[in-house]
């Protein structure tokens, strides 16, 4: 490595990915840092550079490298960082130790695990160590890749065929050699030695058997009045495989969520759309079904609809170092249930790995909604959609049509400071409302002192009295 390259590396000083040591006499402290790099995002240790950034080098012999290598071998499980020399003036060298993020985290050095915080190496907490250890064990032996003890007769064969046909059509699966269900499942990677995996049961199992043997294959849906859980308007549960639950969830959202109206500049007609973008809520539902922790027997996917928000939650927590903030940045996709997630991808429900949350944010922004919020409380992950500047169309319930029209007019006027003409209000109320009904509603609202008018004739504009 050239000296000018070294200078560029150390220009910004020590960081989460760079440690500077004057000599290999500090190799023990350096091995702690290499351990921390393996546990996080990788990094480099440079021997022969002072913490102030001065390149001094050191005499490097075979014994020097042997001692350093022996210290690095105390890292468990075995890791193999690269060690190279960069010649500098006076016959000296800088030793560069490079470690990428380890594939078998957590790593320990002399029996302790370490992590990097800024330019400091610290002992890892027991909770973080246990979380990493659990994730490592999960990658090797997961709930979804264990044998289910089911037969093909316990599955929805029609759903299997639909999935394979769609995967082939999208070019995400090769045409199967055989058309029998075991051949199709083998092509999806859901058989081991001819025996069904649990992922196959989650994806295609019959509702009757799932309800008894895997009660966590459950969807809970609720519609609340207001913004808390004090009063239910609807409360149901559905058992079934992942595709059945996805369909039930989407049906509940279609039946429950109001249509929202909005106006665009230079257009009198109101644009009516679902209150929350269906593609965004579908992405949230797919993520919940793919990434949830199925090992929790009492777990479920939940939908809670309030007057001011929609929440989609799933049992479990975020893993692999992901945080709610990182999910809205470009990130690597590491699904907790890769077999289930891969089948959703092949079916076309998930379009791109690692882009689901970015897609949700983009769809919400384009629909005029705030960016969705994500909470991880350790027991459940919740995606929350909040309302934007849409005008929800009232559902009549116990409200008469004239009352609904008056309520809608007040909602339309609530979105403008300059008021609206009768023509604009008529367009905003949508088809099926006559001009006479609009006139009558405006008169009743004015008589109640809720709205005022300015100007006369066609130039009359209506406003809230408080504005």
Protein described:
This protein has 467 residues and is an alpha+beta fold. It has four domains: 3-140, Methyltransferase, Cobalt-precorrin-4 Transmethylase, Domain 2 (2-Layer Sandwich), CATH 3.30.950.30; 144-208, no CATH class; 218-386, Heat Shock Protein 90 (2-Layer Sandwich), CATH 3.30.565; 401-464, Winged helix-like DNA-binding domain superfamily/Winged helix DNA-binding domain (Arc Repressor Mutant, subunit A, Orthogonal Bundle), CATH 1.10.10. It is 36% helix and 21% strand. It has 16 helices and 22 strands. The chain is extended and about 95 Å long.
Task: List the main descriptive attributes of the protein structure presented here.
467 residues; alpha+beta; Methyltransferase, Cobalt-precorrin-4 Transmethylase, Domain 2; Heat Shock Protein 90; 4 domains; six-stranded mixed β-sheet; four-stranded mixed β-sheet; 16 helices; 22 strands; 36% helix
Tell me briefly what this model is:
The protein is of the alpha+beta class. The chain is built from 16 helices and 22 strands. The chain has 4 domains: 138 residues, Methyltransferase, Cobalt-precorrin-4 Transmethylase, Domain 2; 65 residues, no CATH class; 169 residues, Heat Shock Protein 90 (2-Layer Sandwich), CATH 3.30.565.60; 64 residues, Orthogonal Bundle (Arc Repressor Mutant, subunit A).
């Amino acid at each position: 490595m050239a000296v000018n390259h070294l200078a560029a590396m150390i220009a910004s000083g020590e960081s989460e990915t760079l440690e500077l040591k004057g000599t290999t006499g500090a190799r023990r402290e350096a091995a702690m840092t290499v351990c921390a790099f393996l546990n996080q995002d990788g990094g480099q240790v440079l021997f022969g550079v002072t913490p102030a950034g001065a390149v001094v080098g050191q005499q490097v012999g075979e014994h020097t490298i042997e001692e350093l290598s022996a210290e690095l071998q105390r890292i468990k499980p075995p890791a193999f960082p690269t060690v190279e020399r960069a010649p500098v003036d006076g016959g000296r060298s800088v030793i560069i130790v490079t470690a990428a993020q380890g594939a078998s985290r957590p790593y320990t050095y002399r029996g302790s695990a370490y992590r990097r915080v800024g330019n400091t190496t610290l002992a890892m907490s027991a909770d973080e160590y246990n979380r990493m250890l659990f994730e490592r064990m999960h990658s090797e032996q997961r709930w979804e890749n264990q044998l289910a003890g089911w037969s093909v007769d316990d599955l929805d064969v029609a759903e299997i065929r639909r999935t394979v046909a769609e995967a082939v059509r999208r070019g995400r699966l090769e045409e199967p050699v055989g058309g029998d269900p075991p051949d199709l499942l083998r092509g999806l990677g859901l058989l081991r030695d001819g025996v069904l995996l649990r992922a196959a049961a989650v994806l295609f199992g019959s509702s009757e058997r799932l309800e008894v043997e895997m009660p966590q294959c459950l969807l809970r849906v609720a519609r609340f009045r207001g913004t808390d859980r004090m009063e239910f308007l609807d409360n149901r549960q559905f058992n079934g495989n992942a595709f059945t639950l996805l369909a039930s969830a989407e049906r509940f959202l279609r039946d429950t969520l109001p249509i929202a109206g909005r106006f665009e500049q230079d257009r009198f007609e109101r644009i009516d759309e679902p209150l929350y973008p269906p593609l965004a809520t579908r992405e949230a539902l797919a993520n919940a079904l793919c990434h949830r922790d199925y090992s929790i027997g009492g777990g479920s996917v939940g939908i809670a609809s309030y007057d001011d928000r929609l929440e989609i939650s799933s049992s479990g927590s975020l893993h692999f170092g992901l945080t709610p903030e990182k999910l809205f940045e470009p990130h690597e996709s590491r699904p907790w249930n890769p077999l289930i997630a891969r089948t959703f991808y092949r079916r076309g429900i998930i379009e791109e790995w690692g882009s689901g949350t970015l897609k949700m944010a983009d769809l919400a922004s384009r629909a005029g909604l705030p960016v969705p919020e994500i909470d991880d409380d350790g027991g459940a992950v919740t995606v929350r959609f909040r309302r934007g500047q849409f005008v929800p169309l009232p559902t009549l319930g116990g409200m008469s049509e004239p009352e609904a029209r008056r309520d809608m007019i007040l909602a339309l006027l609530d979105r403008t400071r300059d008021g609206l003409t009768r023509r604009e209000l008529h367009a905003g109320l949508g088809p099926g409302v006559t001009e006479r009904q609009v006139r009558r509603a405006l008169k009743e609202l004015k008589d109640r002192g809720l709205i005022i008018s300015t100007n006369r004739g066609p130039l009359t504009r209506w406003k809230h009295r408080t504005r």
